[in-house]
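#random but structural
TW: two for the price of one
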Amino acid sequence: MSILLFEGVTHAELYAKYRPKYPDAIYQLIGDYCRAPGASGLSVAVDIGCGSGQGTFPLCDIFDHVVGVDISQSQIEQALRLQNLDNKYGADRLKFLVGPAEDLSFRDDNSVDLISVAAAIHWLDADKFYKEVDRILKPGGSLIVYTYVLPKPDKEEAVQIEAQFYKEHLSEYASSRIFPKLEDYEIPYGDEHGVRSVPMNYSLSVQEYVGLITTLSVSQTYLQHNPSSEIFDDLTQRLLNLYTDPVTKEEIPMYTTSTVTVRTGRKPL
């Protein structure tokens, strides 16, 4: 069964605010794969573990109908809030549902062209999930799984500060399921392309970078045990000392580098 680690209201708000958007190249890859010979088409996509919709909204530019699914009510509320704010995709094209990945009974057999999983496959019961994948995908339908690594700052001292911070404060709260290597997962239907990589590079403020760290499950677990802790404020100040111009006293953007890894599979015709 999918694991509940992202259901808190505050966590969902942080998730919506600080989780990075995926690069356009990911959706170019998805579109190309789902348009390729033997693929079922671009009618219906289901995004599993959608959170607040970072990976769901871009699918609306590729597919006629998109459904985002997450086990967390709070995450889905954030996704709906963002959908209403943007007002670009109506409920006739984009829906968000609360539910586990292992029960997709809202879809009929052989009715979906794409099932995508962004940074969530490690929280799922893979065997049960893949049975549902096989049930609802059309012949020629696609399963695409992708995830990313935590962005690396451009200053080596910042990298060392973050590593020390994790070791001293967060490591004991880490789940064995975080930060998966996709090559360790068995993808159904044969993955002829293997693991593909797409760069994900952004300029972030220190607040945005630390905000991203606070969205991680390990950080939220730490805060559940230490609700009055100020370690993230301390981390912010240490990084600001590195990313503040000594003359102008203005903050210097942090250039971060990361990689999105992708696995694909297609249900046989």
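TW: number two ↓
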Amino acid sequence: MDVMVEGPRAAQVASMLHEREIPYAIAMGDVDIMVEKEQGTVLNKLVKNSATVRPMDWHSYHRLDVIYTWMDNLQKEYPYLCSVMVIGKSAEDRDIKLLKISNGTKGNTGVWIDGTIHPREWITTAVVTYIANQIVRNFHEYSESVTSKDWYILPVLNPDGYEYTHTHDRMWRKNRAQYGECVGVDLNRNFSYGWGEKGEEGSSDDPGNIFFRGPKAFSEPETAAVKRTILHSGTNFKVFISFHSYGEVIIFPWGYTADPCPDYVELLEGGTAMAKAIFEASGHTYKVGSTKDLMYFSAGTSVDWSYGVANIPFSYMIELRGKEHRFLLPREDIIPTAREAMCGVLRLLDFVDKRCKGTQACVCPK
């Protein structure tokens, strides 16, 4: 368990743990230093002036307005490939914007990629936008395993929480829905498949808990928008990838039970193909396995729902870098992390299309 303590209280907490003979180690002596390293500058937690929109790049982390402007501009530059749609509104009435990349061929199978279901995981939005940018700007350089897909890309699934991490609380995990005196639902416990299973071990019914699952499945507008878009799109999705951080693991169903899913072996092989591609690209080792095997019980997750209800056969949750910096991954690590993740995604598509022969080199982005 990671516990963040205010500086003046650190000695008191350390004393309490010592008295109770609870072993502990200090992972980060000063979180502010890590935040500065992440951003390259001191993070102003009360920034409200966003009149000047910074250009999109992958050398720093960006606010929601920058990301949405980039999506709109991509549609203007590549109208024959890109379309941007608002698939719903957040709890605080922000747009939930999705980018679709398609050559327009009827019968294309679908690939879903999302980020920032947990808003403190900034690297996920950076990786998702990087992948989208590479695909669009180099579309005709990729193989048919890429160009024959309809790509549904949702960079910021939780826009309210994402903005809140930039302005108030960098470690915020939930959305911003109000439940009594408490705020927020863990959106990755709010999907219907396995919702509420395993009691407090899989999620929580306490609105004050960071794993609060909500009063019912799909109670939140953000998760309802994902459900509606996937089920009503008319697209035959073959791949579902939800990016998270941190941990460097590739996990697949189930999370709500320790039982193996019906396609365990095939999902393990697909995940291993991704892990091999990542290792070849960067030397980083990502573990592969089911959610419960590698992590813990997680009930009501998007990946269990995409596999169990939406019937998307290759459904994965990828926990990105990094173990050392936790959620505060330095901006210098954005592009290396994005590159290795994209190599993994491309290799998975080869695997899914039965074109990966095991010795084929990964077509990594330049």
